[in-house]
Amino acid sequence: MDGGTQPLLQRRPPVEPPQGNGDFTAILTVLFGFIVIVSMVLIPSSSPTLKNSLTILHQVPEGHVGVYWMGGALQKTTTTPGFHLKLPLITHYEPVQVTLQTDTVRDIPCGTKGGVMINFDRIEVVNRLKKESVYDTLLNYGVEYDHTWIYDKIHHEINQFCSVHSLQDVYIDMFDQIDETMKDALQADCTRYAPGIEIISVRVTKPSIPESVRRNFEQMEDERTKVLVSVERQRVAEKEAETQKKIAITEAEKNAYVSKIVMEQKLMEKDSLRKQEEISNAMYIAREKSLADAKYYQTMKEAEANKLKLTPQFLELKFIEAISNNTKIFFGNKIPNMVMDQRLLGNFLQDLEGRRNLEA
Length: 360
What we know:
The chain is an alpha+beta fold. Helices cover 61% and strands 17% of the residues. The chain is built from nine helices and eight strands. It has helices at 19-42, 48-54, 134-141, 145-163, 167-173, 175-193, 211-309, 312-324, 335-359; strands at residues 57-60, 64-70, 73-79, 82-85, 91-97, 101-111, 117-129, 197-204. A three-stranded antiparallel β-sheet has the order 3-2-5. A three-stranded antiparallel β-sheet has the order 6-7-8, with helices on one face. A two-stranded antiparallel ribbon has the order 1-4.
C-alpha cells in the first residue's frame, strides 16, 4: 500500500437487537390479557365450580369457612370470612357454612304397615357443621355431606317409621312424635359416623294421604269432635250440678248452723228461766216453810197455852161469864138442875184431866 494513500475502512452492518425476547414478552402479555378477558367474560356466566377454580381473588362469606383443594387434594388449612388469594386453575375453593342451616327434604313417599301409600311433602332439618370438624367431614363425605346424612337419611328413617306403624298412628296418634323420632335417629347416626354434624331440630309437615282415606279421617274427626263436645257438655252439666249441690249443702249447713245457734240460744233462755224458777221456788218454799214453822210454833204455843188454861176454875169462870152474858132468862122447875148439870160437866172435865196426868 502507498504511504500517501490511506487504507479504506470497511463498514460493518448495524447490529440488530435479537427478535426472540421481544416476541416472547409480547406473547406473555397477549396471553395474560386473553386470560383476563376470558375471566371477565366467562367467569360471571360460568358454573360456581369453574368460577372458584379460575378466580384469583375470592371472598369467604360471613358464617362460612374457606376450604381449598390443591390438585384435587383437600387441604387442612381453612380461611376465615373476608377476601383471600389463591392460584387459579391449580387451587380450587369452596365456602362451607358453619352456622345454623335448614335443609328441606321434599316429596318423601312411604308405605304404612297396612299398605297405604302416603307422601310427606316437606321435612325441614335444622343442622350445623362444627367448625373444628370441617376437614374430617369433607374428607370423608365431600362438600355435599348433607345429602348423605340428611337428605338420604331422612328418606330411610321415614320409611322405617311408616313400615312399622299403621296409617292411624302415622297420620294422627303418633304424628306429634315423628319430629323427635327423626331427630334422635339422625343424631344417633351422625354422632357415630360424622361427629361434626349436629342436628338441632326436625319439622315434619302433615303427610298427604289418598282422598278416600282422608274423607274417612275427616268423618272420624267430625264424629270425635261431636263426642268431645257431648262429653264436654256433660262435664259442664256435672260441674253445674256439683256447684248447685255444693251451694245447697252450704246453704243447708248455714241454716243448720243458724238453727243450732238459735236452739242453743233458746235452750240457754229456757235454762235461765228454769234456774230463775228454781230460785223462786226455793225462795217460796223457804218462805212458806218459815211461815208454816212459825204458824206451827204459834199453834203449838197456843195449844200449850190453852192446855194450861183447861183448868176447872178457868172453865167455871168461862161458864159463869157465858151465863152472865146470856140475856135470856129461863123459868121453871128444871133450872137448878141445868145449872147443876153444867157444874157436873166441869167436874167431869176435871176428872178427865186428872186421868191424863196420871197416864202421863
